[in-house]
Hints:
By secondary structure, this protein is mainly alpha-helical. It has helices at residues 30-49, 54-74, 94-108, 124-149, 154-174; strands at 16-18, 24-26, 118-119, 182-183.
Amino acid sequence: xxxxxxxxxxxxxxxxTALGNGTRVAKHSARVTAYGTVDELNATLGLARxxxxxxxxxxxxxxxxxxxxxxxxxxxxxxxxDEESEYPVLRMxxxxxDRLEAEIDAMNKHLEPLRSFILPGGSALSAHLHLCRTxxxxxxxxxxxxxALEHVNDAAVRYLNRLSDWFFVAARMANDGGKEDVLWxxxxxx
Length: 190
């Protein structure tokens, strides 16, 4: 259980922060940038949820929880030492990726195939989900960049890759099952 009785600690005043294993690193390190962007994605998703209801809101709530799992995973380097840890180390697992894939397939079977690129927008929920999609892609790029420097859980990278696809399909669903998608018209304003 987490207990936060004091919010500021002053330990980061010199530009460093502690990772999940206690190691101190620069706040601009690749690892902190990756999980910080996952946190940004979670906040962006919170805005999207203001426009969601029912099963869509429940799915977004599950994803928000997964994003905390993902942040916990990314803030813990040294995967080979997981067994030695005093506390259980939380890692993303393939089942979380599988769930996203199943949900994408279930939503996508209700949509007509795209014959044009679509512009982000339409309904308020769709616009927010497109924003989530782009932040998710950035988080994925930063996590892949981190993986070129240090070991990263493969399931974490796969989760982010599927998640941006999930947001894309969910954004289409939020536009009346794709009927209200805003289509790109190449060269329309020349």
